[in-house]
User: Fold this.
Amino acid sequence: MELLTKILITVIVVLVGAKSLYWTWTSHIDLKATIRKFVTQEPKIADTVVTRDPNKLYQNGVAVADITGTVQINDGTVLLTQIANVSGLDKSQPIEYGRLKLKVTIVRSTIGMKTVVSDKGSSVLQNVMEGVTCEKLE
Assistant:
């Protein structure tokens, strides 16, 4: 019975460890925001680590745009076909997408408001930029 208990405990520890490692390597962890959140307030266990939304662009750790189109990552550039809600975006400052640091070099067009109609319904996007080409900084 003791051997069975030891085997069961070992299997549970290995599974929990494997799941933790998988989450660590597949999540975009924002270290600065995690430390800031941990230091400035008493965290809840589930909210201890801050992760980033893969469908957003960030500047200085703050979400400044929603990615509403496709993303094409090339050798030295990244093409964002469409981003929305960019009122807080400063094009002269670096932006962050996932683990990439980027500089906006070209914006093909800027639209104040765009209506998107599909089978799922319609939505209105505001402060839209299309054809945004960015240069990788690091």
Q: What stands out?
A: Residues 52-138 form one domain. The first helix runs from residue 2 to 26. The radius of gyration is 20 Å.
